[in-house]
Design a protein that fits this description.
Radius of gyration: 14 Å
Distance between the termini: 24 Å
CATH class: Alpha Beta
Strand order of the largest sheet: 1-2-4-3
């Protein structure tokens, strides 16, 4: 958990047999610490069952957030996010490219429909 930003990040390098229980346990712990946002970073180079991880995370309320290139260990990660507080300000985001604006629009639509 980052105390400065009040966010927590789940780093998923692979899926274990009790993945569902493990994810819910960590999410519960982060919520008890009153985080505003939880990120889930799925290692695209090592995780063997990416679709299963995404499916579970979406069931829990996560939405697509983006891709992290050359992240931890120089691996690429699929990033999902879950807003768990009304304290997250999304109206003031400034995009500096058409691609970023389009991606932000898609993310906001996914948040609104979840």
């Amino acid at each position: 958990m980052s105390e400065y930003t009040q966010t927590g990040t789940l780093v998923i390098n692979d899926i274990c047999d009790d993945f569902t229980r493990a994810i819910r346990h960590v999410m519960h712990t982060l919520c008890r610490k009153h985080v505003n946002m939880i990120y889930a970073d799925i290692n695209l180079m090592r995780c063997g069952r990416i679709d299963g991880a995404v499916e579970l995370l979406k069931e829990e309320g996560f939405v697509f957030s983006g891709i992290i290139f050359f992240g931890r260990g120089n691996c690429d990660y699929l990033r999902l996010q879950m807003i768990v507080s009304d304290n997250v300000e999304t109206e003031q985001i400034v995009c500096h490219s058409d691609f970023c604006s389009g991606l932000l629009h898609e993310i906001n639509e996914e948040i609104a429909s979840s």
